[in-house]
Amino acid sequence: MTLLEAILLGIVQGIFMFFPVSSTSHLALLQHWLIENGSQLPSPASSELILFDLVVHVGTLVSIGIVFRKELAKALLGIRQEITQGITSFFNKQNRYLRLVGYSLLSLTATGLIGFIILLSGTAVFDSPYAIAINLIITGLLLWWTDSVDKNNYGPSDLTARVAILIGVAQGFALLPGLSRSGLTIAIALYLGLKRKWAATYSFFLAIPTILAASSVQLLIVLTDSQPILIQPSAFVVGFVVSAIVGTGALLAVLWLLYQARFRVFSYYVWVLAALVLLDII
Fold this sequence. Notes:
The chain is mostly helical.
């Protein structure tokens, strides 16, 4: 992998991690395109390229930390204070921050169960271009709908087990290619009454443990594989830094568009992408 390729892959990961248009498929498409045009990149299914994908994914987690640094610092401080006060219940209404942890765990559990069921159902849905195109159309419809929501008034203190579980279920279904994790979770959060700001905040906070958990599983698979890692360390570093920098800008742009109710711009994109898939152009 050249440094230019690492930069390109880092840029794509940084942008499409937060744009609600299904990030994993864009990263894989770029990798295949580079290989088809003479790149010496290893196969996207190889351990070393999977490891590179994990590195740039973690880079975009840095973006979340940068953009939401104040909220994260406040939450961590609040959790510490509640624990030192001897509070142990996750779901006591007096525990604002431990309640948030508890509901996040509920969301993650729901995500894991849905993801497990999807994986047990087989891989055919992952290989079907028609299924991907339909999912892209659904994503576009959901993004279009989010712009019409204008009367939500629920904040983090209004979270319930039902809301947390349904958001987790939506995140689980985002495992299907063509469905956007951020698009689905934000749309469901808005449907359930959360304010735009808190729908986005909860969605991207939830991305941190979700991506870390998924990356940890993939890392264990890579480490137990006997294939050598030939990608240079400098490429990993460059990909990580680029994805973090680009991801920060992309996340700020997505939040601005969400708060201004302008997500429909992404609807047009995913519908064009769905048409290209159906026409077998990509």
